[in-house]
């Protein structure tokens, strides 16, 4: 055995030098018995592969960003060129949640004292209506036919005509729970478009509501009839009540839950508009197509022509229709001359309660609020 006489460091230097020489290609890419250091060319190749992967990822990310930006810019032009898109987004009648329920069977939703009607306000138009009788009659209502329910409207109980908001059906969970609350002492007739025939429009929905109101009045005699609108349904409700007041057949009261001032202000305040709210020409791109489609829902104008008691309910933490729009509507209605002989009341619900846009029915105070408001007759403005 030959004795090692060279220092280890010197041997390593020689190995490194031989591995980095331009002519030593045979030594590159493999280990030698005398050298345990990784060749520099292998490290360079690994670095190049990493840089290549990073560059490819950046190119894909940039392509995605350009696509998103292009879509962001294209959507306003698409809506402007096709105003019908905005109408679809306003009504959302194609969103029929909850799915897989049979609206012909309200008992499946826990409404054992409810009957399903189909009314025809005009040719080729059919609207679905649920009629819930007062809860004290639930046993008598079992198995009864349409004639029994129609005759029941002539009993000594008030009737609420309920106009729900956009999307979903009259079988929505929060709507069903409200029917149960209101059924404590009244009939509730809920008009819905979930299984109705026809294309929704502001004019058409108002006409449908008018038809149902007249249908109720023809069967209820002198019993009080109240109009209750929620969210988009408040626009239908004020349209309806304004028309009723103009023909001198006003309802006994109007209740607006989570109302807005007009559809333009609501659309501008809606959470869906956040990403475009500061887009150049926002009104021209997004709001003008709504108006050009004949959709106004001008609650702020309608209340100036309404002559009946008005109750406004609004939760401070409403994320869909901002609380300030409900407050603003009250500030317009309260001093209006049309209400000088009628009470106007605004009831806020603190944000700590968590009622948001559609859970005011959970308030244990709601039955008392309704009872006191509908039971009073003297003119007053409250908030």
Automatic annotation (TrEMBL):
A single GO molecular function term of this UniProt record: monoacylglycerol lipase activity
Keyword Lipid metabolism in annotation: yes
Give the EC number(s) under which this enzyme is classified: 3.1.1.23
Q: Which domain of life is it from?
A: Eukaryota
SUPFAM superfamilies from the xrefs? Answer: alpha/beta-Hydrolases (SSF53474)
GO biological process entries: monoacylglycerol catabolic process; phosphatidylserine catabolic process
Q: Which reaction does it catalyse?
A: 1-(9Z-octadecenoyl)-sn-glycero-3-phosphoethanolamine + H2O = sn-glycero-3-phosphoethanolamine + (9Z)-octadecenoate + H(+); 1-(9Z-octadecenoyl)-sn-glycero-3-phospho-(1D-myo-inositol) + H2O = sn-glycero-3-phospho-1D-myo-inositol + (9Z)-octadecenoate + H(+); Hydrolyzes glycerol monoesters of long-chain fatty acids; 1-(9Z-octadecenoyl)-sn-glycero-3-phosphocholine + H2O = 1-(9Z-octadecenoyl)-sn-glycerol + phosphocholine + H(+)
Q: What is its main location?
A: endoplasmic reticulum
The enzyme class is hydrolase
| Subcellular locations according to the entry | Endoplasmic reticulum membrane
What GO terms fall under cellular component here? endoplasmic reticulum membrane
Q: How does this chain sit within the bilayer?
A: Single-pass membrane protein
**Where does the sequence pass through the membrane?**
57-79
Question: Could you tell me which PROSITE patterns the record lists for this protein?
Answer: PROKAR_LIPOPROTEIN
Keyword list, A-Z: Endoplasmic reticulum, Glycoprotein, Hydrolase, Lipid metabolism, Membrane, Transmembrane, Transmembrane helix
Which parts of the sequence belong to the Serine aminopeptidase S33 domain?
A: 197-267
Pfam families hit by this protein: Hydrolase_4
Q: Does the keyword Flavoprotein apply?
A: no
Report the protein's function: Lysophosphatidylserine (LPS) lipase that mediates the hydrolysis of lysophosphatidylserine, a class of signaling lipids that regulates immunological and neurological processes. Represents a major lysophosphatidylserine lipase in the brain, thereby playing a key role in the central nervous system. Also able to hydrolyze oxidized phosphatidylserine; oxidized phosphatidylserine is produced in response to severe inflammatory stress and constitutes a proapoptotic 'eat me' signal.
Recorded family membership: Belongs to the serine esterase family.
Official protein name in the record: Lysophosphatidylserine lipase ABHD12
